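The pair is quoted verbatim underneath.

:::
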Amino acid sequence: MKLDLKFVRSQFPAFSQPTLDGWAFFENAGGSYPCIQFISRLTDFYMKNKVQPYYPYPASMLAGDMMDTSYRRMAEYLNVEESEIHFGPSTTQNVYVLANAMRPMWKDGDEIIVSCQDHEANAGAWRRLADRGLKIVEWHVDRERGLLGLEDLDGLFSDRTRMVVFPHCSNVIGHVNPVKEISQRAHANGALCVVDGVAYAPHGFPDLKALGADIYLFSLYKTYGPHLGLMYVKKELIVKMENQSHFFKEGTTR
């Protein structure tokens, strides 16, 4: 089937502007123009249902239903459970919150393997845990090709490895890493697998159950939607983290 570019472009109001006529944008790091379906839904929400949700009056009840629908649809899209979907201001902020929530799970001297192919969003917050007692083990790329070697990863594991952090797709060279295989290697060594999907999600449909990652993050504003970050966390894992929200959120998964 041939891609109908005229139809695709018609779904994005920005391209009806004369200044954008004929232009194509490949600025993955800068985000994407939103599609009309999202713009219409968000505009509708702000005009009709921007209220405290779940109260017993029509506008509030509909607001709650719309929010619940967003969790359900994203869960179906990623092949996970609704309780495993979490929204935040950006992927960078989501990782920052994760790092603080997960640090109490580990002891001083425990190790995190962080790839040198990773975007700062999924690297900086983890590396800063070195100031809080953890050891950061660098998974370096091949100097000639810029790729991450699985054999190199095997040599980095120890009995104190707690997590492996890497990108689904490099935002520099565009190489797609074998997430399922890396996840299996991490789990075989008793470690968690955290995947930065920011550069991959705009170009594919990640089946998170098939990939086997414990945590997967990407930015919705790079997939034609709102300026939010989406985070998948296995339900068995999130209950082990230290609460970073209101005290009454303790023990909840959303």
About this structure: The first strand starts at residue 85 and ends at 88. The chain has a mean pLDDT of 92.
